[in-house]
Design a protein that fits this description.
This protein is of the alpha+beta class. It starts with a strand and ends with a helix. About 12% of the residues have low confidence. The structure holds acetyl coenzyme *A. The site of acetyl coenzyme *A has 28 residues, from strand 13, helix 6 and helix 7.
């Protein structure tokens, strides 16, 4: 796995005479992000092939103990190959020399094990063999899983670029035979590509994996490969319902942007509806995932007739007069019965529905340019009350910056209020007002940008929207 290479000596690199000094220069280390390249490959021919480009992980520095740097090597280069069929990996490590300086020599083996654990294979030949010996790993692992979807969904897999007839979504309860082993091989991918994620607890049977499998006809037996997956937690809601929480979702880098994330979300939505859970929520969605999820849900909401009268009524109020001139702008939230119907029928929870509601109104305003000023006042109103709402809900403790001769970041006091009035501090301190207005405007601009992005996307997919 480790090879020591001589420094390349070309015509321009004629060895120059160097003055010998009694000490070596300080070792500043090299960032893991700079010296490690990751490649996802599905055949042994792809290993070392110049045609295969490396994929971009979240942040490799996080996996190196200390400051994220590797010390003690000159000319270090680590190429990690991940077999996307068997999920084994192999690290090809090369460097010119090592120096045992002040920071020592980083133990590369244990650093790589922090990420790849037991999936890493020491010997290259052995790794190359996994393409044939473990060819049916995924097929064997999912053989007792439950097929939740085969081929296209009823929804908008009009998006998917990969032929949907090759796709299957298979569900496995984490406690079932094979699911734990399969997930343990997926963990390196989770760590590498899902920002801020932690492995799920494979001893908790309430976790389910939804595996997005591509089944390719190949010689006599089809070849199964994982192109994505999501981990969903099913938990109890008093008195007699279950809720689903999507906690991790990954589409492998080379398959991203082809509609597969959308496809997986559609399948999970269908399961939530079919199993009549209380609702489906998402744990800390990334901005990109939130966008995809919102696009999917807007399409579902546009086709959901029971909320149409409520949208029409909100649009009527908004288009009646100059809202932005009014002293008090009404809050454009959906009626409670609409919130309830959407949760019960589509399994969309209230918080996410409120986000979608703003977009539904935007889409219904025609022509939007005529009403944009009023619409922006509505969004400003929502953003402002979101901020105030959050402040009011915070515990009765707050951190206040105080003038100090010390480091500004370390100078603050925490005080506890007895009556909880601190919630409004942000809006009461007049000195900060211009600053607050500026921040509010930024948040509103950001929100309008998100709304427009979803609206454009949805209109492109279903131009009638
Ligand atoms: C709870 C959590 O886990 S949050 C963390 C989410 N996970 C991650 O961030 C891990 C890394 N990222 C990923 O795994 C994936 O990118 C996901 C899961 C976020 C999304 O999956 P993808 O398959 O890439 O999404 P999908 O292809 O459906 O949509 C992404 C974009 O591709 C576009 N797209 C969809 N189909 C096509 C197509 N046929 N051709 C070109 N582009 C397409 C979509 O329009 C969308 O673009 P948009 O952002 O402009 O709307």
């Amino acid at each position: 796995m480790v090879q020591k290479k001589q420094a390349a000596a070309g015509p321009d690199t004629e060895p120059k005479k160097r003055r010998r000094v009694g000490f070596s220069p300080a070792d500043t280390g090299v960032e893991a992000n700079e010296c490690i390249n990751i490649y996802l490959v599905s055949s042994k021919e792809e290993v070392d092939s110049p045609d295969i480009s490396c994929v971009k992980p979240v942040d490799l520095n996080d996996f190196i103990d200390g400051d994220g740097k590797i010390y003690g090597y000159q000319g270090l280069k680590i190429n990690v190959w991940i077999n996307s069929i068997s999920l084994h990996s192999y690290a090809d490590i090369t460097y010119q020399s090592t120096t045992n300086g002040e920071k020592g020599i980083t133990d590369l083996k244990s650093a790589l094990q922090n990420i790849f654990a037991e999936t890493i294979v020491e010997n290259k030949e052995e790794f190359l063999q996994t393409f044939s010996t473990q060819r049916d790993f995924i097929r064997n692992m999912v053989s007792d899983g439950e097929v939740m979807q085969s081929g296209a969904t009823d929804g908008s897999s009009n998006n998917a670029e990969v032929v949907s007839s090759d796709l299957q979504v298979i569900r496995m309860q984490i406690g079932s035979p094979n699911a734990g082993l399969l997930y343990s091989r997926l963990v390196p991918l989770v760590l590498l590509f899902v920002d801020g994620s932690n492995p799920i607890d494979v001893t908790d049977p309430d976790w389910h994996l939804y595996l997005l499998i591509q089944k390719k006809e190949d010689k006599e037996d089809p070849l199964y490969r994982i192109v994505g997956f999501t981990a969903i937690y099913k938990f109890f809601r008093y008195p007699d319902r279950l809720r689903m929480r999507l906690s991790q979702i990954l589409v492998l880098p080379s398959f991203q942007g082809k509609g597969l994330g959308t496809y997986l979300v559609e399948v999970v939505n269908n399961v939530a509806v079919a199993e009549n859970v209380y609702d489906l929520t998402v744990e800390e969605p990334s901005e990109k995932f939130q966008h995809i999820r919102t696009c999917v849900d807007i399409n579902r909401l546009l086709a959901f007739d029971p909320i149409k009268p409520a949208i029409d009524s909100a649009v009527q109020t908004l288009t009646k007069g100059k809202l932005s001139k009014r002293a008090q702008i009404p809050r454009f939230t959906p009626p409670l019965n609409a919130i309830e119907k959407v949760r019960e029928s589509l399994k969309i929870n209230k918080k996410h529905f409120l986000n979608c509601w703003e977009i539904l109104i935007y889409l219904a305003l025609d022509p939007i340019d005529k009403y944009m000023e009023d619409y922006t006042s509505v969004i400003t109103n929502h953003v402002r009350s979101d901020i105030l709402g959050k402040d009011i809900e915070t515990p009765k403790k707050q951190v206040v910056d105080v003038p100090s001769e010390y480091e500004p970041e370390t100078s603050f006091v925490v005080f506890k209020s007895l009556n909880g009035e601190e919630g409004n501090t942000n809006v009461q301190v007049d000195e900060n007002k211009p600053d607050q207005e500026q921040q509010l405007k930024q948040l509103v601009d950001e929100r309008i940008r998100e709304i427009k992005l979803v609206a454009e996307k949805v209109s492109k997919i279903s131009p009638k929207a």
